[in-house]
Design brief:
- The protein is mostly helical.
- It has one domain.
- Helix content is 72%, strand content 0%.
- It contains ten helices and no strands.
Length: 198
């Protein structure tokens, strides 16, 4: 079975709520996404929020939205890009939350300790892309956000927050066609701008 027909089949199964398909996707990408989160969050912040919690949240958002038929994904590379974008967005929420004045994790003193967990953090998390390549993707997404006109940025932000197409349409006061056109435009830009090779 070709990669394209395999991903199409997995995406169809996810739309029906197939738990085995969800488990397969989870196992395929979880380590890479945890590596991405570890790269994005400083050690003080990782003591407040575990990288795997952020990754779990990203998967929940993706699976829920895929079940509602919000994504058209035709390759494993597209799926990785989407999961990485959702995960980076979730990291951004946590960073903003914990960097707020009264909760600023950066003001806390860090205690250096060596444990099984910290040793595991030094191990290579993924064969491809590497955490630095995933960080490059995150940087690409952030640059893309800054370059978008306000309405397109709003549509992307709402989408990454888990809003449905109807919710985005209503919030951005535009048509469903506009939402879909903007999301397709953004997807193509991300594919062209990505510096990693999965």
């Amino acid at each position: 079975m070709s990669d394209e027909s395999q991903i199409d089949q997995v995406m169809r199964r996810l739309r029906t709520g197939d738990q085995q398909a969800a488990t397969d996707v989870f196992h395929r990408f979880v380590n890479r996404l945890i590596g991405l989160v570890r790269k994005r969050l400083d050690p003080n912040l990782q003591r407040k929020v575990a990288p795997d919690d952020i990754v779990q949240s990203a998967f929940r958002s993706f699976f829920g939205r895929q079940q509602r038929g919000e994504f058209e994904i035709h390759s494993w590379k597209e799926l990785w890009s989407l999961l990485a974008v959702i995960t980076v967005h979730k990291c951004g929420h946590q960073i903003r939350y914990y960097k707020a004045d009264r909760r600023d994790a950066g003001l806390e003193q860090s205690a250096i300790r060596f444990s099984e967990d910290s040793v595991a953090g030094w191990e290579a998390v993924a064969q491809d892309p590497t955490p630095s390549q995933a960080a490059a993707l995150a940087e690409t997404v952030e640059n893309l956000m800054r370059s978008l006109p306000p309405r397109e940025r709003q549509i992307l932000e709402l989408s990454l927050q888990g809003a449905s197409i109807d919710e985005i349409r209503e919030e951005a006061q535009c048509s469903e066609r506009t939402v879909r056109r903007v999301m397709e435009h953004i997807r193509l830009r991300l594919e062209n701008d990505c510096t990693f090779k999965p």
